[in-house]
Amino acid sequence: MTASHQPPGAPPAGDPPQEEAPELPLLGEPADGIPEVIGTAEGLAAVAAELAAGTGPVAVDAERASGFRYGQRAFLVQLRREGTGTLLLDAEALGDLDLLQPHLAGAEWVLHSATQDLPCLAERGLVPGRLFDTEYAARLLGWERFGLGAVVERTLGVRLAKEHSAVDWSTRPLPEDWLRYAALDVEVLLAVRDVLAAELEAAGKTGWAEQEFAHLARFAPAVHDEPWRRVKGVGRLPARRHLAVARALWELRDDRAREADLAPGRLLSDRALLALATRPPGSARELRDIIARTDRRRVPGAEDAQRWYAAVQEASALPEEALPSRHPEAAPRSRRSQAERNQIKERLAALKEALRARAAALHMGAEILLSPAVVRELAGERRFASAAHVQEEAVAAYLRDHDARPWQIEQALAPVTEVLRRHAV
Length: 425
Prior knowledge:
There is one protein chain. The chain folds into three domains: about 35-215, Nucleotidyltransferase, domain 5, CATH 3.30.420; about 225-320, HRDC domain (DNA polymerase, domain 1); about 335-420, Orthogonal Bundle (DNA polymerase, domain 1). About 50% of the residues lie in helices and about 10% in strands. The protein has 18 helices and six strands. Strands 1-4-3-2-5-6 form a six-stranded mixed beta sheet, with helices on both faces. A hairpin with a 2-residue loop joins strand 3 (about 75-80) and strand 4 (about 85-90). Helix 5 packs parallel to helix 8 (about 190-200). Residues about 1-15 have low confidence and may be disordered. Keywords: Exonuclease, Hydrolase, Nuclease.
């Protein structure tokens, strides 16, 4: 085949094939070996003394047993600081770690994806005064891949093994391979932080990062009044009585999971819960059959099936006034006219487009420039439907009230205000 007849995009005839980039070396062993896991009060006191003698930032990580145990508590906590090396703490054996708080509160914590670990660390008595989030730094820089493995590859030129990220960290004793993984995760963080800090400085984003990190240091997970509504698909159940069954099953599952210290899904999967709520069974046997069709791994025995069925019966017998509402959080929206809903939809689409363009110019994702939740609320804010109220000062005040950081307001205010003005009447 001559070059003029090659398929589109094919390299010219005779060119040597492009070589694949060589695979990066695997970081296989911690620099100082695998540390001993500390699980006694005496060991914790020694750790406190080591941290007090150390200097500089502290790399922090935590391992949970998500999908295995109830809640999101930390089972292993990893720390590393100049002068201390890597420390592995058996958080379940030690309980509270607040003895370490005085020696950590004044240091900068370096974490990857801080919102994942801060709640479980706070449960153990550890709260940062300030932090550096390596994942958020990568996102602020506009990197498309910002998982720890990808960030380590880009900053340090080595690979991390990630095969133990979803294991049951409540296992005791912890296998050596898992401890090696845990030690390496925290070992790389300080070096990664330094590279990212330099890149933020070069991009002129250090001040933005500092604002974001100060905001993250105050992070606390949202508390939901009706957590059962967070089951994916529950909002599509056909009637209020079906919602009542879903609520009853969720509450029974949560109580039993807490007592047994098991992840709720290990007792009854969300899929099975929704199947039972969609078509409430008429007997315990029918209940077992429905569960068997949706999750064969967790079919209950006769006694347990009777408990689940009793919850279904109780919910099915509730009077009308005791049934949960269909869409409690959406009640105000139901009073909007169709024309108003159409205007909100148009305003939201225009806001997203304008923010995407501004974010692209800043080399970051639009969700970093302004929270998608804030954008949705802004699109539906009735006062900004009137041109008389669309003033930069009012929009800036709205963004401040909705927790936007100063740098976000500075960068997003002009395009947001322009869109609101264009769509106001």
